Amino acid sequence: MASSNKSIYSALAANLLIAITKFTAGAFSNSAAMLSEGIHSLVDTVNQILLLFGLRRSKKPADALRPFGYGRELYFYSFIVSILIFGLGGGISIYQGIIHVITPQELGNPTWNYVVLALSVVFEGTSFLIAAKEFNKTRGNESWWNAIVKSKDPASFLVLFEDGAAVLGLFTVMICMFFSHRYHIPQLDGVASLLVGLLLVGVSLILARESRSLLMGEGISDVSKQKITQITAEDPTVLKVMRIISTYQSPEDVMLILIVAFQEDLDTQEINEGIERIRTKIRQEFDLIHFVIIQPEVITHKFHY
């Protein structure tokens, strides 16, 4: 989680400075693409603030109102971030692009635009490299896409996607702006804004899908389930592991429910001792599993005549 904070803070600082310079350059050059890029950076700045707020809220200890803690606050705010990228970032950029394609305006001096875009590439690129480096530490041997899909920490891949989209959007604007001035085609400025908007919409849909999945509840991996089944089945009181139910309450907190059939000749005390042994072993093996609920189950034998 500390790595996520580092990525978010670096992205927040970069986007805040870049948003101010983009809006200034866009106002002087009358460029829709630059204004769209300014909106993009401003939305990203708000997103990082929301992620930091969500991280802080998720750290609140459990209380009577939320007995399992506030961990899912992070998933909620991650989903809000994806909606903001879609509505504010993508929607406004597409609107600006369409307006400037239909009614193109002559652009002013592009010099400051190029300066701002070049500096933005440096800042956004640096932020992206930091986010990629931090995410790379946690992905192990997984491919980048599989690691993103399996990740339970939305703050890490949200920043990665935002910064990646920002860098790609900057290059798109630079290319369109160059050809717009080189061949005197002011419509390309609107096209650049439109392309940036479509890019943001695409990114937001991916992030919304992943954030929604986490918010609805994702369970542990099959490998972890097999290990838990093995640990449970090794206890002498256990007859059979009937079912394993799990859900991530936060990137660092898993709730586990085991439905277990115990040996028929055991009394209540022996079953309770077995439950405590199993719970202790599971917690020792898996640091993220804090809540372990074990439900005894009776296997009924049916005889057919």
Q: What does this protein look like?
A:
This is Cation diffusion facilitator family transporter. Pfam families: Cation_efflux. With 305 residues, this protein is mainly alpha-helical. It has 2 domains: 215 residues, Alpha-lytic protease prodomain-like; 76 residues, Alpha-Beta Plaits (2-Layer Sandwich), CATH 3.30.70.1350. 69% of the residues lie in helices and 10% in strands. A 3-stranded mixed sheet has the order 1-2-3. Helix 2 runs parallel beside helix 7. It is elongated. The model has no long low-confidence stretch (mean pLDDT 87).
Discrete helix count: 9
Poorly predicted spans: none
Q: How would a crystallographer describe the biggest sheet?
A: 3 strands, mixed
Derived structural class: mainly alpha
CATH homology group of the largest domain? Cation efflux protein transmembrane domain
Into how many domains do the coordinates divide? 2
Summed up:
The chain is 69% helix and 10% strand.
Keywords:
Alpha-Beta Plaits; transmembrane; three-stranded mixed sheet; mainly alpha; 9 helices; transport; 305 residues; Alpha-lytic protease prodomain-like; transmembrane helix; Cation diffusion facilitator family transporter
Question: Secondary-structure blueprint of this entry?
Answer:
Elements: H1 2-29, H2 32-58, H3 73-102, H4 111-139, H5 144-150, H6 154-182, H7 187-216, H8 222-233, E1 238-250, E2 253-262, H9 268-285, E3 289-297
Parallel strand pairs: 2-3
Antiparallel strand pairs: 1-2
Helix pairs in contact: 1-2, 1-4, 1-6, 2-3, 2-6, 2-7, 3-7, 4-6, 6-7
